[in-house]
Amino acid sequence: MTARFIPISRRTTFGAIAAACAALALGGPAAANTWPEKNVTLVVPYSAGGPTDVVARLLAVPMGQSLGQTVVVENTVGAGGTLAPARIVRSKPDGYTILIHHMGMATAPALYKKLPYDPLKDFEYIGQVLDVPMTLLSRKDFPANTFPELLDYVKKNQDKVSLANAGVGAVSQLCGMLFMHQVGVKLTTVPYKGAGPAMNDLMGGQVDLLCDQTTQTAPVIQDGKRAKVFGVTTPQRLASMPNIPTLDEQGLKGFDVKVWHGMYAPKGTPKDVIEKLNKALNVAIKDENVKKRIAELSSDLVSPEKATPEGLRKHLEAEVARWDKVIKAAGVSAE
Q1: Tens digits of per-residue pLDDT, 269-293?
Q2: Residue 189 DSSP SS3
Q3: Which of these three, 213, 232, 251, is where a domain ends?
Q4: At what angle do helices 171-183 and 147-156 cross, to 10 degrees?
Q5: CA dist., res. 59 & res. 282, Å (int)
Q6: What three-state secondary structure class fits 318?
Q7: Distance between CA 179 and CA 250 in Å, rounded?
Q8: Strand, coil or helix: what is 138?
Q9: Could you give the residue ranges of the DSSP H alpha helices within the chain?
Q10: Which of 50, 208, 224, 286 lies in disulfide reach of 195, CB 3.0 to 4.6 Å?
Q11: Residue 121: inside a domain
């Protein structure tokens, strides 16, 4: 019997290609469903023991439990908190390297003339995490005991008063700069490599003043033996510290600095992966131990509406616009 040769038509060829593509497309979500298959690295822009690091390590455990993999916290410190976001931008967009950052993501564009990333274009958003008030502290043996006394002292002795911060571009630097701007003084600023070292030197009496987040300062304030507190930086008093007045009510009208935190991934990270990371984040902020510890640090976890990619995107856009005006008006620059 003579074999018959049946030619393959263009239609048959294109049909086969289309079928193959469809099969690959169906395989994409299936592959995504296996994520994560290894540990996830959560990058922190500041030193171990600092406010953002404390938040990251609180969230890492319940997030890891939700994901079924360990969430490893890594500190990428330097350049005022801009090295870590730059690292994320260069990372593979597979969800295995993500970032937690505070409001420095919104202030960096105004503080730095040359920024190696665009907060509004170079990231995928996972969600907001929490809001953290700040407090103004001094060393325990500082001459002033009340805020009016503090204002009088720094105005008369500004060349002798030192003001610590967690490093160039850190929120503590911004808070300190705004304080000096509104009071009308120029103090000696002392930058550290993180909030932890700055707080240690304040308690040790090596520096005079520090404005920092309650995640860092609450234990010191509650202790009452290692530093003095002169006020909180939010418009309203804190429920956890009702006896501490705001700087606004003590004369610095409009003084409002609240540190918010968000989580980010490299641009191009698959939507399915972002959804899993967001789910893990929401599990973490509902965790009873996390809620208890955050409350002890006089901070507030965000609402479910804010703990979303869209919630973070909208908030970041608004904050970039807000701080651009504030920083330029105050003449603050990290360079």
Answers
A1: 999 999 999 999 999 999 999 999 9
A2: strand
A3: 232
A4: 80
A5: 10
A6: helix
A7: 13
A8: strand
A9: 10-32, 51-67, 83-90, 104-111, 147-156, 171-183, 195-203, 214-223, 271-285, 288-296, 309-330
A10: 50
A11: yes
